[in-house]
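Dissemination and training. As part of the outreach component of the grant, students in the summer workshop were shown how a complex can be specified as a set of sequence lines and then modelled as a single object. The example used during the hands-on session is reproduced here so that future cohorts can follow it. Participants entered these lines:
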Amino acid sequence: MNKAITRREFLKKSLAGAGLTIAISITPLGHRIFAATEKEKVGVFKPNVWLQITPDDVVTIVVNKSEMGQGVYTSLPMIVADELDADWEQVNLEVAPAGSAYIDPVWGRQSTGGSTSIRHMFEPLAEAGAAARMMLVKAAAQTWGVSEGDCETSAGSVKNKKDGRRLTYGKFTMKASQLKVPDHPEVKKRDQFRLVGTPEARLDIPYKITGSAVFGIDVSVPGMLYGTVERPPVYGARLVSYDEKSAMKIPGLRRVVKIDRGIAVCADTIDAAWNGKKALKARWSEGVEPHMNNKTLEEKFIAYTDKKGLTARKVGDVNKAFDQASKKVGAVYLLPYLSHTNTEPMNGTAYVRKDACEVWVSTQNQTGVLELAQKLTGLKSGQIQVHTTYLGTGFGRRFETDFAEEALELSKATGKPVKVIWKREEDMQNDFYRPGNSCRIQGGLDNKGNLIAWSHRVVVPSIFARAMPGAVKNGIDPAAVDGIENTPYEFPNFLVEYVRMDTPVPVGFWRSVGNSHNGFTMESFMDEMAHAAGRDPLDFRLSLLKNNPRPRRLLEAVAEKAGWGKAPKKGQALGIAQHFAFGSYVAHVAEVSVDKKNGQIRVHRVVCAVDCGSVVNPDTIKAQMEGGLIMGLSAALKEKVEFSDGGVKSANFDNYEILRMNETPEIEVHIIVHNDKLGGIGEPAVPPIAPAVANAVYAATGARIRRLPMKPETVLEAIKSV
Amino acid sequence: MVKLNVNGKEHKVKVNPDVPLLWVIREYLKLTGTKFGCGIGLCGSCTVHIDGKAQRSCQMLAGDAQGKKITTIEGLPRNHPVKIAWVKEQVPQCGYCQPGQIMEAAALLAEKPKPTEEDIINHMSGNLCRCGTYTRIKRAIKIAAKEGRKS
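and obtained this result:
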């Protein structure tokens, strides 16, 4: 029976974390496996922290990455199970506690992001499974008095080739647990995989259709209070006054607590907490930029495109090339701030005691929560347990720890377990947004219509300056120019500049991060240049990818599947775009029609092709392509955070709309297997969808969209200016 | 005190009747399969059946739900054709909105066992999915309709 975490196990998990030792040590070249020093129960075979097999044949695989929809609770166990030759039906999964044993081997921290889970974990998990299999074979050989070569493993059992006997792994766990863990486990070759590369049903789905999967917001701890926080309504506002007495009159209200992030109340029930917060009648000072709104921000973004930026990449000499160009094209693009709008609003539950602390949280950042808890409680890491629940989407928002901080602070103040639940309005107005941004791009063509120069100046607030300042090198935020400076296009003369623009609006990682805007401007302007050259947009791109077979082949594949070059359906037009991000290439062709009277765009169909190197679970790749392009399409067509009076005005789905089923196109996904290095799949489908659609709008109307979102009024304006 | 019939079981809950039904289900009865998403009836995560019809539990006061038959995701049979189709099509990603989607789809099929493409889109467009599982939801409903008619 497949088994994901149930509520009971979820509570039990807290016991599993203690006393384990580091399973892998990081070397510059890879990982080495060590035995867990602590012997488990008799008969349990636990060669490392990633798996254990019990005498009843159940294989438990530990997952150190957060499940936020991207399928890691299935794909990561598949890697271990394949190398182990386990019976997939006997595989059980356990969520890793936060701790040094479970850090990401590349980052040295336990967190999930950057479409890296499989890329970073494949090698250690494969080795963990292979090591266990080798030990089971040795145990079987010793038991039967035959050579290891006479033993063959499959589906959770070992076969004695000499006499045909077959026994399940459970029969050898006792013996295997006495053996030395091999230093260099022999992993499978690609053609030996049995699970990896085949579509496996997700282990978490049975729990997600019954309502039994536990998300952070579902956590309940005996005796807990409900906490809710009133935060500054505009950026930089300070608390002026509040009415504690009135709040305390609400039945069930226990405490009014001033915390770092605002003024909070704790109550026996959630409704009492909300009533108490209202009764506080908190008053706030004016913010740091009381006149800030969309207009002021947009003006600033546009003005900054005239500033000279820091050079992020330079090839050849663009100025010289522009001087020699027979045609020059320039454009300015402007993109809005975006909200994550995670389906599960931010929340956290914590219980801080004198000598121990527990946190239950939907987090992408276990190490961050652990460090925060240490800082706030003064406890040692061994005294703190961080329980990762299911995440009602992550998208980078749950890399932040602000929601956990509130729960920790309130539990510390009250001495009780406290659960903090954000309402949608709190969630939308206290986000770390995908930064608004602008760019100025120039392209030059020679007299044959070849692209000879490309300069790209990106204006965007810095995410890394706040989140990981160490990653900012020579003043350049890597996210700001990601997807431009590392483009696969072969530009003979190329200049990428970064202009940092600071505002009071906090910015953070939003699915595909800088690629989410750079993919749009790059591929939209590529289309502008193709048309300026009088060339087919596909051919024009291919001519710039002569030495890059992967994106070239991908573009050819997506074009063929989408019927590029054939006459489109009446009233429809096609747009194409590709983007390389997180180690993977994704290309989309969008089939679009535009109502020229009202500017309404209709996306009928999207054909997507992805080359992510190698494949673990193909159905998960398809799902991530579908979901990624829908999220990208939602942003492209609808999303924009509204600011007014120095704060966020957008508050809920009535004034921040996201894509619904009635605007969802038919989607076709093609996986191009290249058998190359593994690429990520969680994010790369997002960047190329907005330009594919905008390029189709151009093909349909002759109107170039240089501002997002493509709301009807924006499209209409572009059509009128043709 | 509010008396609620949830999934065939009578509950007496010490709660103010003007608290939304959603929060009574989630935080008083601890039936957390029903999710909170927006609180204004625009996302559908909190969808339950009230006397067999899909309703947003965040938009109904607990007091007004008295005397009615409330069904949550936990009360929808495990072998319901919609749940089976959801597994077959591997619909959920993060899974958070899915109880609401499933309840909405089940109500649609109860009302219209043979929904057209348009029926599905009209009925389901009130339910948001940030993971973008819409195309799979659509496929799964068609499968559930087929299977439901067979049984």
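The domain at 216-286+346-421 of chain A is CATH 3.30.365.10 (Aldehyde Oxidoreductase; domain 4). Students were then asked to discuss how this feature might be tested experimentally.
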